[in-house]
Amino acid sequence: MPMFRLLCFLLLFFASFSCGAQGGRSEAETTTEAGQQKETAEQRLRAKADSALVYCREHRMNTQFCVLVDMAEHAGRYRFWVWDFDKGEATVSSLCCHGYGGGSTIAQPVFSNVPGSYCTSLGKYRIGARAYSQWGIHVHYKLHGLEATNDNAYKRIIVLHSYTPMPTEEVWPRYLPMGWSLGCPVVSDEAMTALDGLLGSASPPVLLWIYY
């Protein structure tokens, strides 16, 4: 009987060790995957910044900085950046809401250029005049769509503004709640304050590019 108990103990011990080792590998794999996703996102951002600079030069837009918004990024991660062309890096980062219309979910935005859709529109925009906002730091900037996918932006009253409840840090793996955007790119107060300081003296007009 003691021998039987010893065998049972040994079997339980090795089974527990095996499960622990598998759990360790799984955690390591998860960490590696997260690192690879971050690296891929940074590569994607840099590639878009390079394309944006070419566009700005060709269309006589601002070549000091631009604004890039990657709607393919998880909504709990930074996906709004002010990109400094001279430094070759993002100087401002923020979470950014997408529109709640068209069947959009917290994880998957639906894009539309249709008035009344309350959807985000993809494409390049020219950042226009500064005006009063009832939200965030009470500043918004008009957006003028430059492509067929967003050329209704101005008449849809799609503007760049902030919203005070927006977290300043990433909340991944959680998502931002729906309903904070009717199609506008909505960022944190801190990011909007920093961007407002840059846009005040920016000339020629600044490019904002929402892509997926």
Question: What order do the helices and strands follow?
Answer: HEEEEEEEHE
N-C termini distance: 66 Å
Q: Work out the helix count.
A: 2
The Rg value, from CA coordinates, equals 23 Å
Write out the strand line-up for the largest beta sheet, numbering strands in chain order. Answer: 3-2-1-8-4-5-6-7
The portion of residues assigned to helices is 25-40%
- Using DSSP, what is the number of strands? 8
Descriptive tags:
212 residues, disordered N terminus, alpha+beta, globular
Summarize the structure.
The chain contains two helices and eight strands, in the order H-E-E-E-E-E-E-E-H-E. It has 212 residues and is α+β, with helices and mostly antiparallel strands.
